[in-house]
Amino acid sequence: MSNILAGKKGIIFGALDNQSIAWKVAERCVQEGAQIVLTNAPVAMRMGEINALAEACNAPVIGADATSLEDLENLFTKSMEHFGGKVDFVLHSIGMSVNVRKGKSYTDLNYEWMQKTFDVSAMSFHKTMQTMWKLDAINDWGSIIALTYIAAQRVFPDYSEMAESKALLESFGRSFGYHYGTAKNVRVNTISQSPTMTTAGKGIKGFQEFYDYADKMSPLGNAPAEDCANYCIALFSDLTRYVTMQNLFHDGGFSNMGMNPRVIGL
Ligand SMILES: NC(=O)c1ccc[n+]([C@@H]2O[C@H](COP(=O)([O-])OP(=O)(O)OC[C@H]3O[C@@H](n4cnc5c(N)ncnc54)[C@H](O)[C@@H]3O)[C@@H](O)[C@H]2O)c1
Fold first, then answer.
1. pLDDT tens, position by position, for the chain (266 residues)?
2. Per-domain residue ranges for the chain?
3. How far is CA 83 from CA 28, 66, 224, in A?
4. Residue 96 · residue 117 · CB < 8 Å
5. Which of 38, 40, 55, 238 is at a distance of 20 to 30 A from 17, taking alpha carbons?
């Protein structure tokens, strides 16, 4: 470890259990010398697993439903009190589709559920950044990341309305990246991660088969969650200060492949 985040303070959304990508990011941040606050939706916190991570990371847990402006304001206010100052980095690692959960097909979507999906999976990113903006909660040269998936650009039928959620999320990253870059030299990026065996990932129909397909298609294989965490650390660090408004593929090369002979057994 190189202590690359020494002196930095950050907030990590979305650690549900030890498979969560956010869980690995939290662990790596602390290994690299950062102080963190953990947050998740109150319903996820009731499952209790986040407390084990909190203990290991010596981090407080402040609950927040990321669709609630009131909860977000409380989260950032309390975090700044805890740190005695502003934060340097934030990870948004939140996704949930009501229609996927309820098994609705893409040609028969319930629009109230779709709105909920967009609110949780995409608008929550804008709400988080707008809350930070209004509270002036992040230091100059800070770094904000959200996790996304390539279904924002290409069709993966079983990803359903999450595809549009991710397209919206990535667009919020670019647009807010302009405002934050101009005002405070803060960077905003999205990381487009390989399929990963987590609670959110496994919610997609046929996930195991698809995971195996993507693994074969990618020259380097699927990128593991631990390596996604390493990429987040690099983007939180001062070594990437001019990388902003990007959607960055962390996918073992999948996004630039057309055909891989090993997929069809050649
Ligand atoms: N697993 C994959 O294959 C994969 C691939 C690419 C991108 N991603 C993205 O990575 C991110 C993290 O997902 P994961 O795979 O680690 O799964 P996960 O299920 O461990 O994490 C999803 C998190 O979202 C939280 N969440 C849901 N509703 C919320 C709300 N209203 N307020 C606050 N938090 C809420 C959940 O409690 C959970 O902690 C998501 O954005 C997901 O879309 C996942």
1. 789 999 999 999 999 999 999 999 999 999 999 999 999 999 988 887 999 999 999 999 999 999 999 999 999 999 999 999 999 999 999 999 999 999 999 999 999 999 999 999 999 999 999 999 999 999 999 999 999 999 999 999 999 999 999 999 999 999 999 999 999 999 999 999 999 999 888 888 889 999 999 999 999 999 999 999 999 999 999 999 999 999 999 999 999 999 999 999 88
2. 9-264
3. 19, 21, 31
4. yes
5. 238
Whose structure tokens read 């088969």? 209
Ligand 1 within 6 A of CB of 67: yes
What homologous superfamily is domain 9-264 in, according to CATH?
A: NAD(P)-binding Rossmann-like Domain (3.40.50.720)
- The answer, yes or no, to whether any atom of ligand 1 lies below 6 A from the CB of 150, is no
Q: Within 10 A of 24 (CB to CB), how many other CB atoms are there?
A: 23
Query: What is the distance in A from the centroid of ligand 1 to the CA of 93?
Result: 5
Does ligand 1 have an atom closer than 6 angstroms to the CB of 29?
no
Euclidean distance between CA atoms 187 and 13, whole angstroms:
18
Strands 138-148, 87-92: pairing is parallel
Please, are residues 26 and 12 in contact by the beta-carbon 8 Å criterion? Answer: yes
11, 17, 18, 21, best to mutate for ligand 1 pocket (most atoms within 8 Å of CB): 21
